[in-house]
Amino acid sequence: MKGVLRRVVYRTHFVLGSLAGVAAFLTLSFLGVLAAALSRSWADRAPHAFAHTYSWIMRTMLGWRLAAEGLEIFEASKPAVILGNHQSNLDIVTYGGIYPPSTKAVGKLELSRIPLFGWFFQLDRLFYAHT
Predict the structure, then answer these.
(1) Crossing angle for the helix pair 40-62 and 2-38, nearest 10 degrees?
(2) What is the DSSP letter of 79?
(3) Distances 16 to 100, 103, 113 between C-alpha atoms, Å
(4) What is the C-alpha separation between 100 and 32, in angstroms, rounded?
(5) Are 28 and 50 in contact (CB under 8 A)?
(6) Dihedral sign from CA coordinates of 127, 112, 56, 30
(7) DSSP code of 111?
(8) Are 96 and 10 in contact (CB under 8 A)?
(9) Which residues does 30 contact at the CB level (< 8 Å), separation at least 6?
(10) CA 105 from chain center: how many Å?
């Protein structure tokens, strides 16, 4: 019985953390779109802020500890192409913690169809296509 209760508590914690993560994801996406609408400078910084903030929120809520090694390679090899082998939605949490400043993300067209996040993902095209 003790093992069953423990699993229920862990699963409940994960589900509640995930639901809060969805709320954080949408809120941060909205704030990113708002920032882009107000200022080009904020639009340039918004993806980095989004990635790190979302990663921190999820890691804190889920109690995850991540340790990244070799991050100095990002600085030493500018400019560079960084490819993430996206295996699940949890990758966003781990990649977000190491997302370098001034990174430009590329993704499939379907991402643009996600409410709020799709707009945020296309900031340059939506707000600054003429500059």
Answers:
(1) 170
(2) S
(3) 29, 31, 25
(4) 17
(5) yes
(6) positive
(7) G
(8) no
(9) 116, 120
(10) 11
How distant, in Å, are the alpha carbons of 12, 15, 18, 69, 78 from that of 22?
15, 11, 6, 28, 33
Token digits of residue 47: 């993806």
Q: Could you list the pLDDT tens digit for every one of the 131 residues in the chain?
A: 788 999 999 899 888 888 898 899 899 988 888 888 888 777 778 888 888 999 999 888 888 888 888 888 877 887 777 777 777 777 888 888 888 877 777 778 888 888 888 888 887 666 555 44
Handedness of CA 70, 60, 20, 39 (dihedral sign): negative
Asked if residues 84 and 91 have their Cβ atoms less than 8 Å apart, the reply is: yes
Amino acid at 35: A
> Residue 9 corresponds to which tokens in the numbers above?
């508590």
Helix or strand run (H / E) with residue 22: helix 2-38
